[in-house]
Amino acid sequence: MRRVKSAGDIVETTCTKCRAIMNHTIVAMVGEQIVRVECNTCHSTHKYHPPKEAKADRAARTASPSRRVAGTTTAPRREKKDPAAEAAAEWAALEPTLDPERAHPYDMNAVYRTRSLVSHPLFGLGVVQQLLPPNKMEVLFKDGRKLLRCG
Ligand SMILES: [Zn+2]
Fold first, then answer.
1. Same domain, 28 and 76
2. CA of 63 to the centre of ligand 1 (A)
3. Residue 144 C-alpha to ligand 1 middle, in angstroms?
4. 136 C-alpha vs ligand 1 centroid, how far in Å?
5. What is the pLDDT of residue 121?
6. Pick from 20, 41, 55, 125: CA 20 to 30 A from residue 89's CA?
7. Does residue 5 fall inside a structural domain?
8. pTM
9. Are residues 105 and 48 part of one domain?
10. Which domain holds residue 19?
11. C-alpha to C-alpha distance for 108 and 148, rounded to whole angstroms
C-alpha cells in the first residue's frame, strides 16, 4: 500500500493556512517520512500532517461522520479529487492571471460574459465560468464555485 515518496513529489494533505486538503510539494524528508511540505495553493511551507494522524484524531472526537468528504468510508480515497479541492486548484492556477482592477462589482441585474471578472462583497474576486440561462451563472471564487444570479 505504502508508496515511497521523495522530495519534489506532490502529496495531498491538510494546509494549515488554507484549512483544507490541498496539493503540496514535499520540501523535506527524513528517511521515508515527509517532514515539510509547501502548499501549491498559498505557497506557505509547513509541517506535514500525516493523514493517519488526522483519521485517529477524527475518531477520537466521537464517531461523528467526516465533515470534509461526504460518504467517506474506511477505503482510501486519496487518489480521488473532491470538487472543492479541484476548484481550489483551478483558482490557484487562475489567480495570478487575474487583474483585480478589471473586476466589476457584482450586480445581480448586470449581464456578464464568461471569463468576466467580478468582485463580490462576500466571496471576493471571481471569474465567470459558465452562463446558465435565463438568469444564473457559475462563478469560481477562492472559496470554490458559486451559482449567482445575473441579469
Ligand atoms: Zn495553503
1. yes
2. 27
3. 14
4. 30
5. 94
6. 55
7. no
8. 0.47
9. no
10. 10-82
11. 7
What is the rounded distance in angstroms from the CA atom of residue 3 to the CA atom of residue 5?
Answer: 6
Among the candidates 27, 55, 82, a domain finishes at 82
Tell the residue number behind the cell numbers 483519521, with chain if given.
Answer: 55
Distance from residue 19's CA to the centre of ligand 1 (Å): 7
- Give me 108's grid cell: 445581480
Say if residues 43 and 17 touch (Cβ distance below 8 Å): no
Q: State in Å: Cα 81 to ligand 1 middle.
A: 16
pLDDT for 104-136, tens place per residue? 999 999 999 999 999 999 999 999 999 999 999
109 and 144 co-located in one domain: yes
Taking 50 as the pLDDT cut, the residues of the chain under it are 54
Question: 123 CB contacts (<8 Å, ≥6 apart)?
Answer: 139, 141, 142, 143, 146
- Rounded to whole angstroms, the Cα distance separating 7 from 30 reads 10
Residue 140 is predicted with a pLDDT of 96
- Asked if residues 20 and 14 have their Cβ atoms less than 8 Å apart, the reply is yes
The pLDDT score that the predictor gives to residue 1 is 53
* Gap between the Cα atoms of 74 and 132, Å rounded: 37
Count: domains in the chain: 2
**Per-residue model confidence (pLDDT) at position 31:** 87
